[in-house]
Write a structure and sequence with these properties.
Strand content: 25-35%
Largest sheet: 4 strands, mixed
Structural class: alpha/beta
Distance between the termini: 40 Å
Order of helices and strands: HEHEEEEHEEE
Shape: globular
Length: 150
């Protein structure tokens, strides 16, 4: 329900909103080449390709999944400049093991780690905000961060 005046407290809001249980949130990335991106996420980042639908009457679309977490992909423009339109923050148990796996898979560009205008790519680092994370930019310009709580 929309309010003509702001509610007085959280209980007022709770009493006027129907019950909603969120089961899962899936990311949706707009990318210039859906097929190539789905293969990158499968081959380089270790996701499973659930499906790929080439464009015909509708634009191309794909879904990849890793450990029950889903990323959808649809046709769109490349992020320019890189790192400025969001991306994925993936919580993992062992970010150093993930980094080692990504190195073996060849996930990083030959310029990694690179300083962009908006972000700095880096291998695993311990941060002041209570995470140990690695930041990379995918071939479409999206941030892909793997983080581990410390």
């Amino acid at each position: 329900r929309l309010y003509d005046t702001p509610p007085q407290n959280a209980r007022d809001v709770k009493e006027n909103v129907m019950s909603l249980t969120v089961k899962h949130i899936a990311a949706l990335l707009a990318v210039p080449n859906v097929e190539a991106t789905a293969h990158y996420y499968r081959d380089k980042l270790g996701f499973t390709l659930n499906f790929y639908a080439p464009g015909s009457d509708i634009s191309a679309y794909a879904e990849v999944e890793r450990d029950g977490n889903i990323v959808h992909m649809m046709e769109g423009e490349k992020v320019d400049p890189p790192g400025t339109r969001g991306g994925l923050y993936i919580i993992v148990e062992d970010v150093d093991a993930v980094y080692d796996d990504l190195v073996k898979r060849g996930a990083f560009s030959n310029t990694f780690p690179k300083q962009y205008d908006a972000i700095r790519e880096h291998p695993p680092e311990t941060k002041q905000y209570g995470m140990r994370d690695l930041i990379m930019v995918d071939p479409n310009g999206y941030l892909v961060t793997f983080g581990q709580p410390i």
